[in-house]
Amino acid sequence: MTPDMLTVPEVMAALKVSRWTVYKLIRSGELVSVLVSERCRRIPRSALDAYVARLCEEAA
């Protein structure tokens, strides 16, 4: 079963990018995230899928 909410390290692994890059995408609004608690950020699986889909559309 695929989790609905991903951690930053899980997104890093999925995209094969650095922590800095994931946070840059979040700050720019390119990747949606939610703050679950004061220090607990999660990225919805649907947001990651939408980001990858946009990348593929731009590359086409």
TrEMBL record:
<feature type="domain" description="Helix-turn-helix">
    <location>
        <begin position="5"/>
        <end position="54"/>
    </location>
</feature>
<protein>
    <submittedName>
        <fullName>Excisionase family DNA binding protein</fullName>
    </submittedName>
</protein>
<dbReference type="GO" id="GO:0003677">
    <property type="term" value="F:DNA binding"/>
</dbReference>
<dbReference type="InterPro" id="IPR010093">
    <property type="entry name" value="SinI_DNA-bd"/>
</dbReference>
<dbReference type="InterPro" id="IPR041657">
    <property type="entry name" value="HTH_17"/>
</dbReference>
<dbReference type="Pfam" id="PF12728">
    <property type="entry name" value="HTH_17"/>
</dbReference>
